[in-house]
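> call design_seq(struct)
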């Protein structure tokens, strides 16, 4: 990657992305592969922050959470993201990349609390910053946390890594005529009811004029191409 299109980005990773082919939990080969791509980008001087979900861990306890108070279940999900963030930090360390975990919940014996000026300093020092525990509030998803943190750190774009290589006109697994959008406006995506992020995250990105690029985390080199601004996945813009 000789030229970087984006200098500071927010990468949203779902917890499910860490499962690989497993039913739940963290697949070691998968996290090593993913952090290898993150490390390649970090070594090129891109300032990279990551928001990680917790679905891979919470899925294992979800049956026991049925009927549970929503706020309590959400706090359990936040704790799951902290576990994923620590695993991500450790895997990046093995790639030779210095990473810091900041949590929206105070667990100071394990991770440091989220402090925006400190996060900005880490980014300027070319450390990867991993934001854990979502927004720290129940009823808000990690998608919303990604939009919020992306706006707070002045990211140029939110990169949402998924299992599909962009946004399609229909479900590509069900409709063979489905076509991938290279670019689409927030307003058109809303009008078409395309599920990019949850409504709160979507509205925040639109209001802050923060574009989103949806791409497949399973495609080798896709993260680098997305940061370069190549035709990788789908860009949602104002």
């Amino acid at each position: 990657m000789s030229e970087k299109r984006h200098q500071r980005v927010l990468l949203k990773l779902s917890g499910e992305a860490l499962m690989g082919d497993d039913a739940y939990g963290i697949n070691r080969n998968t996290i090593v592969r993913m952090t290898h791509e993150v490390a390649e980008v970090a070594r090129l001087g891109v300032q990279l922050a990551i928001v990680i979900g917790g679905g891979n861990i919470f899925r294992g306890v979800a049956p026991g959470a049925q009927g549970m108070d929503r706020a309590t279940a959400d706090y359990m999900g936040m704790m799951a993201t902290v576990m994923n963030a620590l695993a991500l930090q450790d895997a990046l360390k093995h790639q030779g990349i210095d990473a810091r975990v900041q949590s929206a919940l105070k667990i100071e014996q394990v991770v440091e609390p989220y402090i925006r000026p400190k996060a900005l300093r880490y980014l300027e020092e070319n450390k990867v910053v991993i934001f854990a525990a979502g927004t720290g509030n129940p009823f808000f998803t990690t998608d919303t946390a990604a939009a919020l943190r992306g706006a707070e750190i002045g990211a140029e774009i939110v990169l949402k890594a998924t299992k599909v290589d962009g946004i399609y006109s229909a479900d590509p697994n069900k409709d063979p005529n489905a076509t991938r959008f290279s670019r689409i406006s927030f307003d058109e995506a809303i009008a078409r009811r395309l599920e990019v992020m949850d409504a709160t995250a979507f509205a925040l990105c639109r209001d802050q004029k923060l574009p989103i690029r949806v791409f497949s985390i399973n495609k080798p080199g896709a993260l680098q191409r997305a940061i370069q601004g190549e035709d990788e996945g789908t860009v949602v813009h104002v």
